[in-house]
Amino acid sequence: MTTPVQPKFIETNLDHINEYEGKLAVLVTAKGGLDPLARRVNKLCKGAIARFVASAEFAEMKLGATYTLNYPAGMLATAVIISKMNRKSDAITARKAGAAIARATKSGDALLLAGASKITAELAQGHVLCRYEFSDHKSAEPTAQGSLGVMCGDAQAVGAAFQTMAATSEGVFFTRDLVNAPANVLTTVEFANQLIALKKLGLKVTVLEEKELAKLGMNSLLCVGLGSETPTKMVIMEWQGGGDEQPFALVGKGVVFDTGGISLKPAGGMEDMTMDMGGAGVVAGVMKTLALRKAKANIVGLVGLVENMPDGRATRPGDVVTSMKGDTIEVINTDAEGRLVLADVLWYAQKTFKPTGVIDLATLTGAIIVGLGHENAGVFSNNDALSQNFLNAAKAEGEGAWRMPMGDAYDKLIKSRIADMKNVGGRTAGSITAAQFLQRFVMPDMPWIHLDIAGVASTATPTDLAPKGASGWGVRALDRMIADTLEPTDG
Ligand code: BES
Ligand code: MN
Ligand code: ZN
Questions:
Q1: Which residue has its alpha carbon closest to ligand 1 atom 17?
Q2: Does domain 8-153 have CATH number 3.40.220.10?
Q3: Quick check: pTM over 0.90?
Q4: How far is ligand 1, taken at its centre, from the CA of residue 314, in Å?
Q5: Please, where in the chain does CATH 3.40.630.10 lie?
């Protein structure tokens, strides 16, 4: 488990600065303005900051970027990290600046001299989110995680404002750990165990095993796991922080490894399919966040945990299965397994919990990566108000999300000759036909969003707030959407 750095918020103390032995970070405004803390550091290092600020290099620096002066004279600090950042800014730029300071700090100790900055909590949050390393499987002793001190006016108030952000960071790190974990370690059994462990935070967690899933008629979900040695499970996490209103549901695709099944994937890049439980990982991260910050809302998270393997017992192309809803599905391609998982979990979620709305998340299609790259998740919805709420939250958190079209013309592409539908359309509009398939398992008038996160759940290059690998995309957007639209506002 990777735990986020816990920043220590301390009151301004100019005399403390020359004794600090880690890396100091100072803020300089775009116009080159130094606050009293930066002025003190500048004085100690005999004007080095002022000389840099007067340079063309500073002028060319982007807002939020950093420049490091190493081993400055006049103090014990090993470096002074200069962050070009105004006292007021939008949260996204502030978090990026905090992350840039974290990258400049590497694994050492840092003291951020934030002073009277209005965005101190956001700077700290960006820093914390970016300081993530998945070292579970490195045999070398992990390098000690550096500390983060934040010197600011009104340290107590800033520290309090930071508390909910700390809960979010823990959720994000939980998601990243799950998504980064290899499939021989994160089996469906281990995944379920990690979710059961959330009980200690006050979540109600229920695990349904294959026998129960079969009794419920969830053959669409079950057919995906027939070739695997690790058992198919559905895990339900309930957070009851609200009143007696119906819950909102989050549903996640939890394919712990996707070989494609009998429709086997090519070898090149197949190892990336350890992240095919990314949707379930985000649901888990959000549920953990809600519990940690004691959200005043009722949210139920459901994940279908299964492994897609080829085997003598595996589902064949051409097989027909009957879903829990009763609709029959012709499995043309066993590699289009995510929608088979979600079909039954979506149906179960609606039947059992009568939610006010449902959002499902899945690393569903390669086609969404072709369309949107790694910048945006695909947003598919039957409800303009709900999708606008989500898009607003995603925008505020700087998590890319882009609405995609749906419609009957696309739905026609999944008609089957011998069953109610087939699990793939043609070669065109692959992400949309996948969404149309899911919509067949959404009840009439149920507000619903499908998020195709195949491009954003894990990336080969670092993103603004994460190193390469699992990003935790969506945890913050969903948590914010819940806070902004489902929780009562104070006062
Ligand atoms: N898990 C994959 C989608 C995926 C691809 C996720 C790349 C992350 C990165 C999904 O189960 C899949 O195999 N989809 C197929 C669907 C096709 C058979 C219709 C795909 O996208 O090729
Ligand atoms: Mn697949
Ligand atoms: Zn898959």
A1: 336
A2: yes
A3: yes
A4: 18
A5: 170-485
